[in-house]
């Protein structure tokens, strides 16, 4: 995809740097917990960073600010990739991340809106996210607010029937303020999505449900920025799905494309290697 | 004497049923509240007419969302709406709400403790010959097992209306209302004085030999059964335990102490429903009393017209009276 954005290079570099931070913190936190979701966090790192450092309006001092943009993770198991970003932008002190998975901690493997400032809606049960977004976007319309609801979904999540109930209703209710982001990393717990339960053609499916569909490289920050900058207006009638072509485990060579890393624990040498690769990455 | 509608055998055609569903008062009640409470919105899954939401939908079309046949999406979207400050009322048949959408209720509504109000209608065997798929005899058990969830089974339309108003004006957190088909005869008179408060049982009749604790459609039948029992020299206290969770424990314990025998009656499996909830209060209190649960005895209900079904399962007045007599060995 060609670079059409006029966003300063410093901003692009910042987003890339923050994606890197998210990956490194993910490694650190999962190492403490001895288990967690690497692969699907890494496939979303640039998406997270683009949303929080460029796209979304929010106020860490006022996490429940009525007019903020909403972000919901249908694929809640990627929460570990977002926690460090929420801390970094100021929702809570970074030290709190050290409690990850400990007894009574606010920070588990899946995000909890009751316990973590900056989490707009909890998740963990795959397939709810887009429905939550439908409700949030209806709420925006009722209140004449122009915020958007961004819903991140995994490709495996598209196997859940409720996603298509939600997709149908979003088009029916003309929710142009709703944005579905599909992190198409092509793996699920048991294997490769295509072999397990094929979901293609994804683009055709969304289009046939009445959505505006954009396909991009989900790791290309310039493209992500450009895509989000040029979304149809929030008061338009058609919801948008951004299908992001991504790589599970992106940034760590031995994890890339491997469904084995969906949930895993790294040994000390692997951790060292992973950190080196992430730090040396783009 | 009010018009016999509950078990009238000749009026089960759908269009007549809609006309007779006068106790499904959620729609009119919400329409009444709407101007003062802009946060109130409603949604249904293609059943706004049979569930009684239609008057609200008609009066406030911008605040009503028909989700089509997609209950799980509807419930989760209601949770999303609630997170923006709305108080959504979601209504469909109980079999498709409290049972089908149970996981969505648990995960998206109950756990985050959101102000979503679920109204499952046509409970128990009210759907009669529509078939067992449409019967809901598990929904109390399912919803009451969810932390944060309040579970209410009002006896009639007045009770439903009063508690909907309370829920909008002063109640926080999710509620599952369990209401029947709307054609049951009323227990309460519509009046100035609020008769039904969330969490406070109503003692509708006093007696010293037995207490019948009922909810929903069975309250009126229990009252009529008590009249029959009285003719035989058995005086029964009748409690409308409309709020099953949190339960009015004091009313249960006083009943056990005063009458020494408690019979629960519900249009639900005796496992996990009102009877189970009452038994938990009794057993943990240590107050001794005779106790029996009446309802569906861990069985799938038969198909049939409700008129016959309620008789078959001894959930009409005659049936409850006979169960009570057997229970007391009289």
From TrEMBL, chain A:
Q: What Pfam families has UniProt attached to this entry? A: Transketolase_N
Q: Which cofactor does it need?
A: thiamine diphosphate
Q: Quote the InterPro entries the UniProt record gives.
A: THDP-binding (IPR029061), Transketolase_N (IPR005474)
Q: Which residues cross the membrane?
A: none
Q: Which family does it belong to?
A: Belongs to the transketolase family.
Q: Which domain of life is it from?
A: Bacteria
Provide the organism lineage as a comma list. Bacteria, Bacillati, Bacillota, Bacilli, Bacillales
Domain Transketolase N-terminal: start-end pairs: 18-274
Q: Which PANTHER family match?
A: TRANSKETOLASE N-TERMINAL SECTION-RELATED
Name of this protein: Transketolase
Matching SUPFAM superfamilies: Thiamin diphosphate-binding fold (THDP-binding) (SSF52518)
Q: What's the source species for this entry?
A: Salinicoccus bachuensis
Q: Which UniProt keywords apply?
A: Thiamine pyrophosphate
What the entry lists under Gene3D superfamilies is as follows:
3.40.50.970
Automatic annotation (TrEMBL), chain B:
The record's section on InterPro entries has:
PDH/Transketolase, THDP-binding, Transketo_C/PFOR_II, Transketolase-like_Pyr-bd, Transketolase_C
Leader sequence segment: none
Q: Which Pfam families match?
A: Transket_pyr, Transketolase_C
- Gene3D superfamilies membership: 3.40.50.920, 3.40.50.970
Where does the Transketolase-like pyrimidine-binding domain lie?
20-187
Instruction: Provide the assembly information.
Output: Heterodimer of an alpha and a beta chain.
Name used for this protein in its record: Pyruvate dehydrogenase E1 component subunit beta
Query: Which organism is this protein's natural source?
Result: Salinicoccus bachuensis
């Amino acid at each position: 995809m060609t670079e059409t954005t006029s966003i300063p290079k410093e901003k692009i570099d910042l987003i890339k740097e923050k994606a890197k931070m998210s990956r490194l913190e993910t490694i650190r936190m999962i190492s403490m917990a001895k288990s967690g979701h690497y692969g699907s966090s890494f496939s979303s790192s640039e998406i997270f960073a683009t949303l929080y450092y460029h796209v979304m309006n929010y106020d860490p001092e006022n996490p429940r600010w009525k007019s903020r943009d909403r972000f919901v993770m249908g694929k809640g198991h990627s929460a570990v990739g977002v926690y460090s970003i929420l801390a970094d932008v100021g929702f809570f002190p970074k030290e709190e991340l050290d409690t990850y998975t400990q007894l009574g901690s606010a920070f588990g493997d899946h995000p909890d809106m009751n316990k973590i400032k900056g989490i707009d809606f909890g998740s963990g049960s795959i397939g709810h996210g887009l429905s939550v977004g439908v409700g949030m976007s209806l709420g925006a319309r009722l209140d004449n607010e122009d915020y958007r609801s961004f819903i991140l979904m995994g490709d495996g999540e598209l196997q859940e029937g409720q996603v298509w109930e939600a997709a149908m209703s979003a088009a029916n209710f003309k929710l142009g303020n709703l944005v579905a982001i599909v992190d198409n990393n092509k793996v699920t717990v048991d294997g490769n999505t295509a072999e397990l339960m094929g979901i293609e053609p994804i683009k055709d499916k969304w289009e046939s449900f009445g959505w505006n569909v954009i396909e991009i490289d989900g790791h290309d920050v310039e493209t992500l920025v450009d895509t989000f900058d040029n979304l149809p207006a929030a008061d338009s009638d058609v919801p948008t799905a951004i299908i992001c072509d991504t790589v599970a485990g992106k940034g760590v060579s031995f994890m890339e494309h491997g469904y084995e890393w969906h949930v895993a624990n790294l040994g000390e040498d692997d951790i060292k290697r992973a950190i080196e690769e992430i730090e040396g990455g783009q | 004497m009010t018009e016999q509608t509950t078990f009238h055998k000749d009026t089960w055609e759908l269009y007549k049923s809609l006309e007779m569903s006068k106790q499904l008062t959620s729609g009119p009640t919400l329409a009444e509240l709407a101007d003062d409470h802009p946060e109130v919105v409603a949604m249904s899954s293609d059943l706004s007419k049979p569930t009684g939401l239609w008057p609200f939908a008609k009066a406030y079309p911008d605040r009503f969302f028909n989700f089509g046949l997609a209950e799980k999406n509807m419930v989760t979207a209601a949770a999303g709406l609630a997170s923006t400050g709305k108080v959504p009322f979601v209504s469909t048949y109980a079999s498709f709400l409290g049972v089908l959408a149970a996981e969505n209720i648990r995960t998206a509504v109950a756990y985050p403790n959101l102000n979503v109000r679920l109204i499952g209608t046509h409970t128990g065997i009210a759907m009669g010959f529509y078939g067992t798929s449409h019967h809901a005899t598990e929904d109390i058990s399912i919803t009451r097992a969810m932390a944060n969830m309040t579970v209410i089974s009002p006896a009639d339309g007045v009770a439903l209306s009063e508690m909907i108003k309370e829920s909008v004006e002063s109640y926080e957190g999710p509620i599952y209302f369990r209401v029947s088909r709307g054609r049951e005869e009323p227990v309460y008179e519509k009046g100035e004085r609020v008769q039904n408060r969330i969490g406070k049982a109503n003692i509708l009749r006093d007696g010293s030999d037995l207490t019948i604790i009922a909810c929903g459609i069975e309250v009126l039948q229990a009252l009529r059964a008590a009249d029959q029992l009285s003719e035989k020299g058995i005086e029964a206290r009748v409690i409308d335990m409309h709020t099953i969770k949190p339960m009015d424990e004091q009313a249960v314990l006083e009943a056990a102490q005063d009458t020494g025998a408690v019979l629960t009656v519900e249009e639900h499996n005796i496992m996990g429903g009102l009877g189970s909830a009452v038994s938990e209060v009794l057993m943990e209190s240590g107050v001794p009393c005779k106790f029996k649960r009446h309802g569906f005895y861990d069985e799938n209900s038969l198909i049939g017209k409700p008129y016959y079904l309620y008789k078959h399962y001894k959930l009409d007045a005659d049936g409850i009276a006979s169960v009570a007599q057997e229970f007391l060995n009289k």
